[in-house]
Design goal:
Belongs to the PhoU family. This protein has 241 residues and is mainly alpha-helical. It has a single domain (3-230), classed as Phosphate transport system protein phou homolog 2, domain 2 (Methane Monooxygenase Hydroxylase, Chain G, domain 1, Up-down Bundle). Helix content is 82%, strand content 0%. It has 7 helices and no strands. The protein is flat. The N and C termini lie far apart (44 Å).
Length: 241
């Protein structure tokens, strides 16, 4: 490549990084607003979530087009190529996280527009905070190419899964004990499930960061192997989970 081409390539890469982080910031705000809307009944927050979701979708399309142009024009290799491939996959996870955040906001609206005053059967804010931490760490690991932090996100997903299962058990018990709460409890199950799915998407994105840094595909390898490969160790442990 000429010096001019190299400079353009670097600018294009930086634009993709910047836009992806912007997209992540929007999704983070959507999750926060959705949970706040559930807790407070402030339906203006629901509208903010919907507006941000449109911007997330716009960024997904724009970044995807930019990646296609870079691949065609510059034919990147090594870590730059891995970044392009990883971000193209991470875009889907980020956009779907935005979709899940919109589900939370939509259900929050339905809950507060119902005839009965909303009463929290289970507290979902702790679960939401855990998911938000995962998202922030996934974005930070991407920005800094930090495979160790990305591996920590993968491990954190197990805790979110535990909270999802605990909330589900609690809500099922509540519905059995008082069938009048079935409708309200189902709404909360939808929200808890949406948060659990965001956790899954954060885990997927963190795995892609490890791929970017080390070229290692850690999907389905277990948490301990993921942590080992994130440290740059090449020998997997077949019995690790």
């Amino acid at each position: 490549m000429t010096e001019h081409t190299n400079k353009q390539f670097d600018q294009d890469l930086e634009r993709i990084r910047s836009q992806f982080l912007q997209m992540g910031g929007l999704v983070e705000a959507m999750i926060q607003d959705g949970i706040d809307a559930l807790a407070s009944g402030d339906l203006d927050l629901v509208e903010k979530v919907r507006e941000r979701e449109k911007e997330v979708n716009r960024l997904e399309v724009e970044i995807d087009e930019r990646i296609s142009l870079i691949l065609a024009r510059h034919q990147p290799t090594a870590i730059d190529l891995r970044m392009m491939l990883a971000v193209s996959k991470m875009l889907t996870d980020m956009e779907r996280s935005g979709d899940e955040a919109e589900k939370v906001a939509t259900v929050a609206r339905r809950v507060h527009e119902g005839e009965r005053r909303y009463q929290p059967v289970v507290e979902l804010r702790h679960m939401a905070n855990g998911v938000l931490v995962m998202l922030r760490q996934a974005l930070d690991s991407f920005a800094r190419l930090d495979a160790i932090q990305a591996a920590a996100v993968v491990r954190s997903d197990k805790e979110v899964d535990k909270e999802w299962k605990g909330a589900l058990r609690h809500l099922i018990t509540y519905m059995i004990e008082d069938p009048r709460t079935i409708s309200r409890s189902i709404d909360l199950i939808f929200i808890a499930r949406a948060l659990e799915r965001v956790g899954d998407h954060c885990k997927n994105m963190a795995e892609r960061v490890i791929y970017m840094v080390h070229g290692a595909d850690v999907r389905h390898t277990g948490v301990k192997n993921t942590e080992r490969l994130a440290r740059g160790e090449t020998e997997p442990d077949a019995g690790a989970e």
